[in-house]
Amino acid sequence: MATVAQFDITYTQFLNEHGKLVGQLPPFAHNHSALKELYKIMVLTRTFDKKAIALQRTGKMGTYAPINGQEAISAAIGHAMRPEDVFVPYYRDYAAQFQRGVKMSEILAFWGGDERGSQFSCNSKDLPICVPIASQCLHAAGVAFAFQYRNQPRVAVVCLGEGGTSEGDFYEAINVAGTWKLPVVFIVNNNQWAISVPRDQQTGSQTIAQKAIAAGFTGMQIDGNDILATRQVIGDAIEKARRGEGPTLIEALSYRLSDHTTADDATRYQPCQEVEKAKPKEPISRFKEFLIEQKIWDAQDEESLVIQCSKEVEEAVNEYLSMETQPISSIFDYHYAELPEYLVEQRAIAMEEATHA
Ligand SMILES: Cc1ncc(C[n+]2csc(CCOP(=O)(O)OP(=O)(O)O)c2C)c(N)n1
C-alpha cells in the first residue's frame, strides 16, 4: 500500500487573546497607519452594531444580524481589497462594506426592509447582502470567471458562515474555482454556530479549511479574532489570486457573541460557560492592548475615537429614520425586470389595499 496524497492544514495567529505577539510581526503590520485604520473600523462597526440592535428593539428596524465578536474578519477583508475588486458579502460583513463605500444608513435601510439599502450610492460593483445561505459563492465564482475571461487583474472575495459550507452551492462554487483556477477568495467566518446548530453537528470534516483540498486548492485556518492574522493572510490570498495563482479558502475561527439575529434567543441553546470562555478572545480588546503597548495608541486617541464613532453612527441613524417611506409596490418592483403575470395582479391588489388603508 502506498500513500498517494498528503495534505496539511495550517493555523495562523500573530496576536494571542492577551494581545501578546506570537512570533514575528507580519509584514503589513509595520505600517502604523494601517493598524490604526483597522482598529478604528472595528470600533466603528461595534458602535454601529449596538445601535442597530437598539433600533430593532425599539421597533424602528426589522430583523438585524449582529457582527459582535467577529469584526476582525470583515475589517481585514475591506482593508485588503482593492477598489477594482468585487466583494460578495453575506449578512455579517459590515466592517468590509463600510470600507468599500457602503453607507451605514444603507445597511440600516436594508434591515428596515427597504430595497434602496442595496442600491449603494457609492456606485460600487460589489454585490448586495446575500441572505440565501451559500448562493453567493456561485455569484463570486461567476464574477471571478468574468475577470479571468477578460484578463483583468481583479479578484472576487466572498464570505460565508461555516454552516454555509454544508450547502451544495458552496461545493459547486469551490469545485469550479479549483478546476478553472479562478481569482476568488472564499472566507469562512467560523463563528461556531449556524443559528442553533453547533459546529460539531454541522459536518464530519475535521476542519472547514480542508474542504478546499478536495476542490484542488489551498485551505487554511487562521485565528479570526486576531486582526494581524486576518489582514495578513486575507491580503496574501487576494494578491495570490490577482497574480493568477488561483483560489484560496480561509477558515477564520471566531465566536458568535450575540444572537444569530434579533429574531433569535441564543441563551436557549448556547452553553453559557462556552460564551464566557469566548468573550475574552474577542478581537477589539486584544488589539487595543497591543496598540497601547506598542505606543501606537493612547487614552486620548481612544476618547476621541469613541466620540467620533458615536457621532457618525448617530448621523447615519438620522439619515435612515428620515428616509421617505417606500410605496408598497416596491416589494414587487425591485425583484424583477419584468413582473410575472400573477405578480402583476398581486401588485395591483396591494396598491389598491394601500390606498384604502
Ligand atoms: C438556503 C438557505 N437555507 C436556510 C436559510 C435559513 N438560515 C438563515 S441563517 C442560517 C444559518 C447560517 O449559519 P452560518 O452559515 O454558519 O452563518 P452565521 O449566520 O452563523 O454567520 C440558516 C440556516 C437561508 N437563509 N438560506
UniProtKB/TrEMBL annotation:
<dbReference type="InterPro" id="IPR029061">
    <property type="entry name" value="THDP-binding"/>
</dbReference>
<dbReference type="InterPro" id="IPR001017">
    <property type="entry name" value="DH_E1"/>
</dbReference>
<feature type="domain" description="Dehydrogenase E1 component">
    <location>
        <begin position="39"/>
        <end position="320"/>
    </location>
</feature>
<dbReference type="GO" id="GO:0004739">
    <property type="term" value="F:pyruvate dehydrogenase (acetyl-transferring) activity"/>
</dbReference>
<dbReference type="InterPro" id="IPR017596">
    <property type="entry name" value="PdhA/BkdA"/>
</dbReference>
<keyword id="KW-0560">Oxidoreductase</keyword>
<keyword id="KW-0786">Thiamine pyrophosphate</keyword>
<comment type="function">
    <text>The pyruvate dehydrogenase complex catalyzes the overall conversion of pyruvate to acetyl-CoA and CO(2). It contains multiple copies of three enzymatic components: pyruvate dehydrogenase (E1), dihydrolipoamide acetyltransferase (E2) and lipoamide dehydrogenase (E3).</text>
</comment>
<protein>
    <recommendedName>
        <fullName>Pyruvate dehydrogenase E1 component subunit alpha</fullName>
        <ecNumber>1.2.4.1</ecNumber>
    </recommendedName>
</protein>
<keyword id="KW-0670">Pyruvate</keyword>
<dbReference type="GO" id="GO:0009083">
    <property type="term" value="P:branched-chain amino acid catabolic process"/>
</dbReference>
<dbReference type="Pfam" id="PF00676">
    <property type="entry name" value="E1_dh"/>
</dbReference>
<dbReference type="InterPro" id="IPR050771">
    <property type="entry name" value="Alpha-ketoacid_DH_E1_comp"/>
</dbReference>
<comment type="subunit">
    <text>Heterodimer of an alpha and a beta chain.</text>
</comment>
